[in-house]
């Protein structure tokens, strides 16, 4: 599965991930308050297409009634799954009482889950952290509450909220949750290569694996995981020409989805991820950072990969 990533998992990125075999994608997290107020920017997060299935929509908020109403609005867009964010550690989210802050108030979390389950007919899942801190790891308790409230599955990220995205994910927490509940458990955290997914499944007994930041600049990770788990023979990573083709396709989809001005700004982070670690990639990003014309930028990108083919044709990235 592709995790919901703010500012990243828009429609083009989800379609790229699906092209490499990702089985289930989630939207960026969507504000329940924004949905209820029907702000145009918030509704934009729900944009999808027939090829973008199965699709989960993740919402966040701290009021049971508002979350239930937001869930009903999302339900009108016919997602396959509705996910509740109870794990985001970002300050602007937790200061509203939402995201990982709900792990500090399990009764409220339970009321939110129950209200959303009553409001929609679609399966409801809950994404959580190991806890707020190492001293207050309560993912097992929240998972049990979620199960009792009617959640169809839980997604557990092995870090605590106060870790943010630093340190390492503790997969033993995922295993503890799996032993504690009867609903499916999805493991999340530190899946950076196919063998990580295989190890998580083996060590935790979880039912599925969710990939987040490990897919940034490496959407072919999903194909690698699938090939490893099924025993299929395949290249772990695409060739230089293959990577260039993926970048160009992703960029063209962003242009179509967002328009030139916004896409040029939005895609720069993807360009950094796609080229990170490649020879002279810093110079490429510096050069393209000064450009404003999409066609010139694409031409510069293709020239860079032709340079790599000439200088180090054996590179497989």
Fourth CATH level, the homologous superfamily of the largest domain: Aldolase class I
H/E element string?
HEEHHEHEHHEHEHEHEHHHHH
Q: What portion of the residues fall into strands of 2 or more residues?
A: 5-15%
CATH hierarchy: architecture of the largest domain: Alpha-Beta Barrel
Largest sheet: 8 strands, parallel
CATH class of the largest domain: Alpha Beta
Gross morphology is globular
Structural domains: how many: 2
Give the helix tally: 14
Could you name the CATH topology of the largest domain?
A: TIM Barrel
Distance from N terminus to C terminus (CA atoms, Å) equals 22 Å
The overall pLDDT average reads 93
Could you list the spans in which at least 5 consecutive residues all have pLDDT below 50?
Answer: none
Radius of gyration: 20 Å
Class inferred from helices and paired strands? alpha/beta
User: How many strands?
Assistant: 8
What is the share of helical residues? 40-55%
Ordered list of secondary-structure elements with their pairings:
Blueprint: H1 11-19, E1 25-26, E2 30-31, H2 32-37, H3 40-44, E3 55-60, H4 64-75, E4 81-86, H5 91-94, H6 106-119, E5 124-128, H7 139-149, E6 153-157, H8 171-180, E7 185-188, H9 194-204, E8 208-210, H10 221-230, H11 240-258, H12 260-275, H13 281-289, H14 294-311
Parallel strand pairs: 1-3, 2-3, 3-4, 4-5, 5-6, 6-7, 7-8
Helix pairs in contact: 1-11, 4-6, 6-7, 7-8, 9-10, 11-12, 11-14, 12-13
């Amino acid at each position: 599965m592709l995790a919901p990533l703010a500012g990243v998992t828009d429609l083009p990125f989800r379609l790229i991930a699906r092209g490499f075999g990702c089985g289930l994608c989630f939207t960026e997290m969507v504000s329940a308050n924004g949905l209820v107020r029907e702000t145009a920017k918030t509704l934009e997060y729900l944009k999808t297409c027939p090829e973008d299935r199965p699709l989960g929509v993740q919402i966040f908020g701290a009021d049971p009634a508002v979350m239930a109403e937001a869930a009903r609005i999302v339900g009108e867009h016919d997602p396959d799954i509705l996910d509740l964010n109870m794990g985001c550690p970002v300050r602007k989210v937790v200061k509203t009482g939402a995201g990982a802050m709900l792990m500090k108030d399990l009764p409220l979390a339970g009321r939110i889950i129950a209200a959303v389950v009553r409001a929609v007919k679609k399966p409801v899942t809950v994404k959580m952290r190991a806890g707020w801190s190492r001293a207050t790891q309560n993912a097992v308790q929240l998972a049990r509450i979620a199960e009792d409230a009617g959640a169809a599955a839980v997604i557990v990220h092995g870090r605590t909220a106060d870790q943010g995205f630093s340190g390492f994910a503790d997969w033993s927490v995922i295993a503890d949750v799996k032993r504690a509940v009867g609903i499916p458990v999805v493991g999340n955290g530190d899946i950076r290569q196919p063998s990580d997914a295989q190890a998580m499944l083996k060590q935790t007994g979880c039912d599925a694996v969710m990939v987040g930041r490990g897919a940034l600049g490496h959407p072919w990770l999903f194909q690698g995981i699938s090939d490893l788990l099924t025993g299929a023979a395949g290249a772990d990573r695409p060739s230089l020409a293959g990577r260039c083709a993926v970048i160009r396709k992703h960029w063209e989809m962003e242009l179509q989805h967002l328009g030139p001005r916004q896409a040029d700004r939005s895609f720069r982070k993807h360009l950094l991820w796609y080229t990170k670690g490649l020879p002279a990639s810093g110079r490429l990003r510096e050069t393209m950072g000064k450009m404003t014309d999409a066609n010139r930028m694409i031409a510069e990108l293709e020239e860079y990969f032709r340079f790599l083919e000439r200088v180090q044709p054996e590179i497989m990235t």
